[in-house]
Amino acid sequence: MAFDPQTPNLARMYDYMLGGKNNFGVDRDAIDQLSKHIPEAIPIARANRAFLQRAVRALTEAGVRQFLDLGSGLPTQGNVHEIAPDARVVYVDNDPVVAAHARALLEESGRVVFLHADLLRPRELLASPEVTGFLDRTEPIAVLLVSILHFVQDADDPAGMVAVLREAVPPGSYLVLTHAVPTLGDPEAEEEAKNIYRSSSVGGAVGRTEAEILGFFGDFELVEPGLVEVTEWRPDIPRLVGEDRLPPYLRAAMGRKPGNSPSRPH
């Protein structure tokens, strides 16, 4: 993937939605257009990041000390290594924009590694020195696929890719993901939103049913509360009666590979 400042870039677009500064006018314009069609786009992105932080906290409390964050995006607010400062973290992304910014990140911590690689080639990724020399395959690893699989087209076999990852990690490891679902909202607005992503660096997005999302977990055991709307996965603050809800565009879940491990998330 070549660097192109004239094309909206997914990582920079997400950075803008999270309030970061590593984005260009073309990225801000794309998100501003997206928000016209899906007004809740930015709140949903921030809810997704909040879920990631809650999930990482739950895993560290359970004793997990290794994270493989795939499609990690730009170093921005609330990264995994900030939530789990004592853990080893491998960030993986195929975006040259992300790779450039990650060099500065690596200077800050000896417990963080960045790998410029394609998650569509999971066996190559897992065999890289950045992974084999940094993560201990005898100890549980948390694999994070947060808001990335819906940018993988069916033709690229996302289910097969995730199966390789599940097989590679030891018993007691975890798979954490969020994924967009098909919605019953405004079809015209949703099509406009899809067009914005088609014109970006990822070339499109695809929603999948809950059954398809659950299929990514294979024989992993879902951790409570299971597959739920992203804001409903162990919220820090209980929802107030009558409080406005975000549209149910995004699902979240965590699964555990059967076998011995540190304590489970409670």
From TrEMBL:
<dbReference type="GO" id="GO:0032259">
    <property type="term" value="P:methylation"/>
</dbReference>
<protein>
    <submittedName>
        <fullName>SAM-dependent methyltransferase</fullName>
    </submittedName>
</protein>
<dbReference type="InterPro" id="IPR029063">
    <property type="entry name" value="SAM-dependent_MTases_sf"/>
</dbReference>
<keyword id="KW-0808">Transferase</keyword>
<keyword id="KW-0489">Methyltransferase</keyword>
<dbReference type="InterPro" id="IPR006764">
    <property type="entry name" value="SAM_dep_MeTrfase_SAV2177_type"/>
</dbReference>
<dbReference type="GO" id="GO:0008168">
    <property type="term" value="F:methyltransferase activity"/>
</dbReference>
<dbReference type="Pfam" id="PF04672">
    <property type="entry name" value="Methyltransf_19"/>
</dbReference>
